[in-house]
Amino acid sequence: MRIEQLLHKRLLICVGCGGVGKTTTAAALALAGALHGRRSGVITVDPARRLKDALGLDGLSVEPRRIAVDSVAHFDALALDTKHTFDTLIERFAPNATVANRILTNRLYQELSNELAGSAEYMAMEKLHELLHHDHYQLLIVDTPPSTHARDVLAAPNRLSNLLASRAVSLLQAPAGLLGGATSVAARWSLSALLKALERWTGIELLHDLADFAAGFEHMVEGFNSRAADINRLLRARSTAFVLVTTPEPHTVDATIAFHHELLEGGFPVAGVVANRVLAFPELDGATGAGGASAGLECSDSMRKRLLLNYAELRELSGRDQRALKRLHAETKVPLLAAVPAVTEAPTSLAGLHRFAQMLVPGLGAVNRAGVRAET
Predict the structure, then answer these.
(1) What pLDDT, on a 0 to 100 scale, did the predictor assign at position 1?
(2) Which of 39, 149, 159, 353 could bridge across to 347 with cysteines, CB 3.0–4.6 Å?
(3) CB of 130 within 8 A of CB of 9?
(4) Residue 178 has pLDDT above 90, yes or no
């Protein structure tokens, strides 16, 4: 598969270790999609929110922000807001407005909706589900957190559904059972004292709010399960492709190989690899080597020797990079979609992002610089 073919997919998910240029790659693919006439959007679920920096913006939110590439092409950029998405989901799945309001105003829900284990990852998948079913975007690119957290994102739909259907949640619906389940008088006394201390410390009627919090979700488990199944189907659809983003550093290649195996075991469609910061210095021909690596510049013999020595070191590093990428291909059997050369700094503006996109997607073409702007 060529990288241009990815732009005809519906969903691209960029995954990889931290610091490999995943965010820049995701944003550049959205820009390339826009220039190919696709209605494109890019969403970050990375809590570091580096996407706004790659686009040269002062901020991003859950509401789409239109990025104008030129006078015609544009794409949208969004960042996950866990609380907002969770609230929207409650309103959608609650059997009626009364139940929804009871959950949204519950003090435990207000405290935990950002922190409940798995909620951020689940809400990322929920927002993705919403955007894909809105039928506005022809191409949606997801910038995930570093790979250890991306695994949590992909597993989240099942994990949160299992939690809501678990015995623990059933027990919380009748939290007096916590006391009844204690095996001795001493244990019941200790647990009762602990709960009362927590109530005094937090100012919350803990048993009542626990029961109210859990009972509110009782009628929504089926809806959560249905959405989880749909999200799992979307992640494995033919219109979806996972892109492994890496650098040629040996430890990063090792992590990329391991993550590829996990994706295959999960049945996720891996399209290929984008390698960033790749060194590629060709061997000098005889004339250049003899005449100096200064490309026509006048220099002394000592300067010429230093330049040739520096170039030889870069050639050695280039060979290391090529060997690492060959090993990556041998281990994964997936194509190298692009090898982006090392640049001095990451893009911090739309113009810089376009230059990166031209290195990522060959033949992308120029942009009318007068049209480069960000719109609210």
Answers:
(1) 73
(2) 353
(3) no
(4) no
